[in-house]
Fold this sequence. Notes:
By secondary structure, the protein is of the alpha/beta class. The protein is built from eight helices and twelve strands. About 40% of the residues lie in helices and about 25% in strands.
Amino acid sequence: MKKVMTIAGSDPSGGAGIQQDLKVFYLFGVYGLSAVAALTAQNSSGVAEVMAVESSFLRKQINVVLRESVPDATKIGMLLSTDNVRVIAAMIKKNRLRNIVLDPVIRSSSGRMLAETGVPQLMREIIVPYCTVITPNIYEASVLSGMDIITDSDLAKAAIILKGFGPEQVIITGGHRAGSAVDIVYDGTFSYLKGQKLPGEYHGTGCVFSSALASLLALGFDAPTAARRAKSFMNRSFRKSFSTGTGMRLFSF
Ligand code: PLP
């Protein structure tokens, strides 16, 4: 059985983070490994509190797991602290990990910062160069590229800048754009992943998408095919979401 590791934050509501990543891995038929980089107290309405796991303990979790199991792909999500970013970069190098998908989490949809000062810049410098795919939303792409993104041509420019930092493929997810949910893919040439924009706000979209991508890479699909399949999975998943009555919609698959 193929193995995928998630290194991300804990979301006790189960809609995002490690908890949701593991559900996606299960759906794709891959074995899920996990290391918790941060804790959150949150529900579908918002994030009440965040806390970074000590970087030495994050390192320990990963080292102990990797002693027995080397993942076929790794998804990296909320890391919260610059120390954690350094641990992950060193771990990737030391273990020569491949098929790395980075969801460069900076801020929750509800507006809470999920990355401390300096985290985006450091991720860009020491993690992004090792990634197969990075999946920023428009806000994250803007922070990482250092440019305002307003028009479609800004989006294309940002994708080119981000590709310049070294990943094989950049997918800027478009769910937050008005009107359409088209993702822009750049791997040297541009392509687009179409999605129908459904009403409502969704919690954990970035986590689900990046976990689906990592699963598909582990299963042996190349990056362009993984991107197309992960997008179809998202389009199906939006239809199978539910509301707790308050807050954002949650994916139930
Ligand atoms: N909580 C955790 C642990 C996450 O990893 C993420 C991912 O981006 C979020 C919350 C944000 O969720 P959303 O912005 O979809 O509400």
